[in-house]
Amino acid sequence: MTLDKQWRGHGLGAVLAVEVVHRLMAGCRAVACSPGVTDLRGSRLRDQAEWDRVNAKISQGWERIGFRLYRDNIYLLSPTSLELEEQRGVLRAQLAELGAVWRLL
User: Fold this and answer.
1) What is the tens place of the pLDDT at every residue in 80-91?
2) Which residues contact 83 (CB under 8 A, 6 or more apart)?
3) Where are the alpha helices (DSSP H) in the chain?
4) pLDDT value at residue 40
5) Helix axis angle, 12-24 to 82-104, nearest 10°
6) Cβ(1)–Cβ(13) below 8 Å
7) Do the Cβ atoms of 63 and 75 come closer than 8 Å?
8) How far apart are CA 76 and CA 99, in angstroms?
9) pLDDT tens digits for 26-78?
10) How many beta carbons lie within 10 A of that of residue 59, not counting itself?
């Protein structure tokens, strides 16, 4: 998934990710991902330090919903994780708040 620039930084990536995982996990024993930057059109990520910072932030988002580093850049999640359901509720509440603020603008 790639969010347009104006939608980044609002926690939408995490809420969308948790909803996708929730919808697709039926019958799965594990969910794997390799988080990182996929939109390379901008010039801002040409510096290695900035690249590493952004990738670390993305990885933290995946960890927030229950993914754990397996090895290299592979993260795993157990579909039976209570953390996934807890974070789903938290993220849905944050999305509702964001929507309420957006409606006021």
Assistant:
1) 888 888 988 998
2) 65, 66
3) 12-24, 48-64, 82-104
4) 61
5) 130
6) yes
7) yes
8) 30
9) 888 999 988 877 666 665 667 778 778 888 888 888 888 889 999 988 999 99
10) 18
Can you give the pLDDT at residue 76? 94
**Neighbouring C-alpha atoms within 13 Å toward the C-beta of 12:** 12
β partners of residue 75: 33, 69
CA distance 53 to 25: 29
DSSP 4: -
Q: Residue written as tokens 């998934």? A: 1
Q: How far is CA 42 from CA 18, 25, 37, 46, in A?
A: 27, 33, 11, 8
Please name every residue paired with 76 in a beta bridge, in sequence order, or none if there are none: 32, 68
Residue 1 predicted with pLDDT over 70 = no
The side-by-side arrangement of strands in the sheet containing 31-33 is 31-33, 74-77, 68-71
